[in-house]
Amino acid sequence: MMSSVLTPDIRIGPAADGDYEGVMAISEGIYMGVDYLPYRYHAWLKDPQRRMFVAKSEGKVVGFDSFLLVDDGITAVVQGLRVADWMRGCGVAGILQRFCFKTLRSDHPTVTRVRLTTVENPPATMLNTYHIIHSKAVISVFISAEQLDETIKILESRVSSTCDNCIPPVFLEYSDVHNLFPGRLKEEDLLPGGFLMQAWLPITTNKANLDLMQRWKVQWLCSYPCDALCDVTGSSELHDVKGSFDVNIGFLSLGSPMFPVPLGEGKHRLNIDVFGTDLSFAKIHILYQFKEAVKKLSTGESIICFVYLDESLHGGLNDFFEGFTPFKFCREQLVLEMDLTSIKIA
Ligand SMILES: CC(C)(COP(=O)(O)OP(=O)(O)OC[C@H]1O[C@@H](n2cnc3c(N)ncnc32)[C@H](O)[C@@H]1OP(=O)(O)O)[C@@H](O)C(=O)NCCC(=O)NCCS
User: Fold this and answer.
1) Which structural domain range is residue 201 located in?
2) % of the chain at pLDDT higher than 90
3) Which residues sit with their C-beta closer than 6 Å to ligand 1?
4) How many CA within 13 A on the CB side of residue 248?
5) How far does residue 83's CA lie from ligand 1's centre (Å)?
6) Which atom of ligand 1 lies closest to the CA of 117?
7) Is the pTM of this model over 0.85?
8) 198 in a domain, yes or no?
């Protein structure tokens, strides 16, 4: 059983079911109302790969942090860090993080690196400990319940005007997902840095990570590369396709199941990660993922849709969403990494 750490005012210990209200009380307004923690908190507690911690002052929750063990136990991804607004700037975040690092060293000695994702312009002090290893552009839009049908029509028209000859991408079974890397897709073509981004989670393509995503019901959508297409279509069709698609490397996207967010009744957040640099593929993947997600909404529910993409697609996909209501949350998603074996923890 892990012991708690006592500082002059702050006590850090494992988070429990009973801390939910306290953690929610310090989370108000976080991430402009699209915070994932209210929805995930209890499921996270049950996950054997995750550890969650609360910082308390005078018995009251003033901070929260967690990590998830991934990549076969080599990497810990820190997620959910937050400090009560009345306690910010007092070093609580630093204390929580050092507690996580010490716990990793003592309880999970196979972990050699720590990763996190954050938005653009992280505080300079973070870059003393972490270095940036990857970034993706972010486009996010709000689509009200009334706009959903029209949105699909608009996106369909914008897809079909660019890809009349396109071979539809396919949603994969997890048996196919396990054979993708290495296999019909190449990491070096589609996954810069060698890892997947699933929503804000940077992980490698190893089996255990894919199993995690299966449990979370992440939807894999794939456009296979040229050779695979040849098998299916025959060469004459392929000739047309080649005009507008980067058929040689294929394209991949992940659609994470939507979840309700605190922003308002019936508002759901949808995360779509796209992998590859071909604009035509990107558009059709977003359309397919969006349509698939919308099927699960009930009447009157709306979506805040986040798309994470290669920077080179930013201009083209901005045009794809032209006229939609922007949800201005961030411009970029950064992946930061730190070598846990080399840092000094005070
Ligand atoms: C970001 C936040 C947790 C900082 O809390 P804080 O207690 O004011 O931070 P402090 O000034 O006391 O401590 C700063 C330490 O946290 C680190 N830090 C700041 N922002 C961070 C972040 N987003 N992720 C990880 N570490 C962060 C700093 O590098 C610094 O580290 P050091 O002590 O080793 O120098 C707080 O502002 C917050 O809750 N914001 C809203 C939620 C949020 O944006 N969370 C970040 C998720 S990526």
Assistant:
1) 135-334
2) 81
3) 30, 81-83, 88-94, 97, 116, 118, 123, 125-126, 129
4) 3
5) 8
6) 48
7) yes
8) yes
